Amino acid sequence: MTLDYRTRDSGGEWQPMRYAVTLDTTRCNLGGARRWFLCPARGCGRRVAVLYGGKVFACRHCYGLAYPSQSESASDRAARRADRIRERLGWEPGILNGYGGKPKGMHWRTFERLVTEHDKWSDLSCALMFGRLAWLSGAGR
What we know:
141 residues, elongated
């Protein structure tokens, strides 16, 4: 595949860009194939699904991009897991909001298991947040 576009830095002169991006193919376990880009940045060549735009299209590793979850604290991660369960139960988001009811059509056993799992992640998130607050206030030093 050939990328052909123009770019400019901070309102400067337009510079034409034209370079090849190699595609790679891997076989899927249940049949078929998947296509990948090989990162065109100098010295990289990683097999990636997404190339990010800039002066040169490159993978997230070359641009130093991180997923939002990579900068999450442990308490945020636990709260996100609890919120995912709340969404599945049809409850209002936010671990400090009250419980909702059992969704229609959900088995009681499934509902009880999800509530127990929600409580585990919610309690962990709160404990980690309170521990951090206590440490920041000087009580934990």
